[in-house]
Amino acid sequence: MFDSHFHLTDPRLNTLPEIEQGQCCGVEIGADFESLPDVFAFANRHEQVYCTAGVHPAYADVYSANDLENFVAEHISNPKFVAIGECGLDYHRPDLPSREQQIEVFKHQIHLADRYAKPLVVHSRDAWEDTVEILIANKSKLKNGVLIHCMSYTAEQATFLINQLSGIDVYFAFGGHLTYKNKEYLHDTLRVIPLNRILIETDAPYLAPVPKRSEVNRPEFILYTAQIMAKVLRKTVAEIENLITTNAYRFYQIKTAQ
What we know:
alpha/beta
C-alpha cells in the first residue's frame, strides 16, 4: 500500500525489515534542510521509496532560501525527487517560529515548486485561514498539484478549498488520526473529497493509529487507517489500496509503479 508521507530516516525507526525486503513503498519527506542528504540517500537505496525536498515550518527561523534553492537545483534530475515539501504553517505551539517567518518560508517554497514544476506538500496545523489565503493568492503557482498532508480540517473547510482552487489538482492525505475518537469529524471530511483526490499516510514515526496509538508509528500500521477509510467510504480494503496507490502515483507524477 502506497504511503504518501513518512519519515523513515528518523532514528526511532532504525530497524525496518519491511523496507529492506522491498515490502513498503512510499515517499520519504524532507522536513529540515540538514536532513535532506540523508532523505535522498535513503530513497536512492530503496527501489520503491521516493523523496521530497522541503523545510517544515518548525524550522522557519533557520531557513536559507539560497541553500534550499541550490539543493533543489542540484538534485532536480533525480527521478526519485517527486515534490517540494513538507512546508506550510503550524500555529499549534507558542514556541514555534513567528507566523511572519513561517509565512515567508512557505511562500518561497511555493515559488520553488512552481519554478521546478513539482507538486507541493503542505503542512497546516491550527493555521487554516492563513494557509488557505496563501494558497488562493498563489493559485497560479500550484498548477503541478498541491497535497494537504495530515488533513485535520472540517468537511466545510475542505469543500471551500476545493472550490477556491478550482482547476488545480488538490489532494488530501489522511493518517492515523482518522482512527481517533476525538477526530471522528474527519470521517465527514473524507466523504466530501472526490475519490480521485484521496491519499493515505502514516507520517511515521508520528501519529500511530488505534490500536497502536501509544507506540512509535511504523509503515505496517497503515493497514489500521486503511480499514477505517474503507469503512467510512463503504469500500473494501483492497479497493482502498488500489485507489490510493493510483492517486499517489498521479499526484507525485511517478510514471511507472515499481
